[in-house]
Structures are given as structure tokens and as C-alpha cells.
Amino acid sequence: MLNESAKKRIEELTKKLEASKESISSSLSSSFGEILVLLIEKLQLSQDKKFVFLLAGRTGVGKSSTVNSLLGQQIATVGKYDATTMDVQEYEHEINGVKCSIIDTPGLCDDIPEKGNNEKYIELIQRQVKQIDLLWFVTRLDESRVTNDEKQGIQIISEAFTPTVWEHSVIIFTRANKADDYLEELAERTKRIRDEIAKHTGNEIANKIPSVAVDNKSQTTPDGKRWLEELYTQVFIKMTERGAIPFLMATASRINKSQSNQNGKDPNWIFYNKFESQNEADSESEFNVNDLIFTGLQKELIKKKIIEVIPALAVAGAGVGATIGGPIGAAIGGVIGAAVGSIFYFFS
């Protein structure tokens, strides 16, 4: 429940909105206080929950590096394992007061001596993995085929969690700038991975799995497009409803930082993604993400997902955007305020 201080701030903000004919319509402002209360209560209920990523892919393809790039800090340890044993490793972390778990599966997609002992690994991951909000299947774009050990990994995942686990998954191709013919290889590799997954799920599930090509040493892929925003978008829209709001809250300050930068503030903010090990693909990265420049389509996809998990926001139109969301978030303050500001950014 909202405390009296929060209620008072909402009442004050609502009155200001009702008095403003330029920023928001009177019909919307009259119900905005109620919408805001519902939103804050939903965020409060989600604050103590966490989101969980399960990483699958061969050792050294860049799983940890890509997660760290997305979350803006080193969450998963890079290069800790060699492809010599099958294990399950969970990294627990807290981002802006929101808990998250990154579960890595070294050995799952590797050709190792224990290969063929599927039942043992299925039992291991079923025992240790209790929640999955998004499955990351990570592989290199410059590989020409789906390897036998990757096929084994896809089979084990499907048997351990049932084929429906792929309904909340993303295919991620690392080393995008190493591809000879980027667009052709992206399309072909996506088809081959989906075809392999379809053997266990059917085409309806497999063909809906999005793919994103990334390069942890560059802001862009060979076609000149920025990959971090696309990764963020696809990760968010494919997450379970349970994990989507905690993920949004954890990354809210990054979205709000981007808004400030796009308004000409703090232009020198740089995310450094440096790693020591040479075991992971492209183990050292340094690129400027002083703003997350979402395209109109990306913002619409994220907005649609937000409405799915917070239906009350369906009535919020384009008038409730960054110009309103930012001040509201700042007035509310804290993790909840940051989340409010970032959510309304996607409605601008």
C-alpha cells in the first residue's frame, strides 16, 4: 500500500496535470492519479521479486560478456570455466535494489568426455534451476553449422524444462563483425538454429524465437545498426510476466540516464565493458553507450509488453511521455520513481 507521503505527491502531481492543457488532455489527466497509484502498487509488489536468465551455449562464445553489456555491469564471470565438465553455476546480484540471477550452464553445449550422459545433466539442472524468465541460446555468427554438442544442448534443455521453455527465449549470435556476409549469414544461421529447436517444439514455437546479432567490441553490427537497444527490446518482450517488471526496474536508471543524455546532459557517460580473460569471444570491450537510442518500432514493442504486464497503462496515450514521466519519477524518487520515469518514456 502507498504511504501518506506518496499519496500526497501523487495528488499534487495529478492537480498539476489537470491544470495543464498543453502536456496532457483533460480526459486523461482526470484519471491519471488512479493510473499512477495502480502503477506504483504494481511496482512495489515486484520490487522484492527477481528475474532469472538461463544461459546456454558453448564455452567461449561470449555469453557472460553479452549479459554484462546488457545490464551495464559485470554480473556474470567471464572466462571462469574451460569446456571440460558439465556444471550449473548461478550468479546472484542486485541492480538498483532489484535482485537477479544469471545461471550459466558450462559444458551443456560442449563436446566433453561426459557427453551422452544426458540424464545426469537433466537431473542436475532440474535440481538447481527453479525459475527461468528468459533462456539465452548463445552461439557464434561466424560458425557455419549447428554443432553436434549444440544439438545435444537443445535436446537437454527441451527435455529438462519441456519444450515450452523456448516460448521465453532469444537466440543471440556473437562476433557479428566476423561474418563474411552479415545479413545472409544471420538469416541462414537463424533458420538453422530454429529448425533444430523445432525438432523438439514444433515450428509454431521455434519460428517465433527472435534472434539478435551482437558484437561486444562495437556499438553497431555490419549493417550499421545499433545492437544493444535491439537486444534490450527482444529480451524484455520475450521475458515471462513474472520477470519483466523486475528487469525493467533494474534497468530503469539506465533508461533515464539515456533520456538525460538525449536532452544534452552528461554527454561523457561511457560504459566500459572490460574483461581480463581471453577465453570468451571478444573478451575486451569498450564502447560509448551514453544514450540508448531506441527506434520507434522498438519503443512500440516495449510499450506493448509493458501494457501486457501492467494493463492499467493501456489508457495512457502519447501525451504521457518523457516530459511528464521524468518529473513524476523524480518527484516519487527511489527505485519506484526511476521505474515510473522509464515506463512513461516508452509512451512518448
UniProtKB/TrEMBL annotation:
Alphabetic keyword roster: GTP-binding, Hydrolase, Magnesium, Membrane, Metal-binding, Nucleotide-binding, Protein transport, Transmembrane, Transmembrane helix, Transport
Topology relative to the membrane: Single-pass membrane protein
Keyword Protease appears in the UniProt entry: no
Transmembrane helix as UniProt keyword: yes
InterPro entries, per database record: G_AIG1, GIMA/IAN/Toc, P-loop_NTPase
Cofactor: Mg(2+)
TM annotation in the entry: 330-347
Domain AIG1-type G: 48-256
Highest taxon listed in the record's lineage: Bacteria
One of the Pfam families matching this protein, by short name: AIG1
Localization terms from the record: Membrane
Full protein name: 50S ribosome-binding GTPase
Organism: Sphaerospermopsis aphanizomenoides LEGE 00250
